Amino acid sequence: MHIEHDALGEFDMAAPLRMYATSWCPDCRRAREFLRERQLPFEEIDIDAHPEAAEFVRRANSGKRKVPTFDVGGRIFPCSPFDGRKLAQELGL
Known about the structure:
Order of helices and strands: EHEHEEH
Number of strands: 4
Oligomer: single chain
């Protein structure tokens, strides 16, 4: 799977961007700020409030509860510890 890009190679705003996170996680806070600063629309799912989301994160990360974990149009990847350059690259920015 891959991130959809337009002809200019920019992030396709129509591709759903989900961030699995917690309210207390510093890496999640930094990722949230990163997305908001770039005005990228995203859906945040609190894995503490949704056990099924926590299980999804564990399955996606070899049994580890890594947050933030992103789902971009069906492509899953963690960004923990937070790395703005890595996230920008993963998003095609």
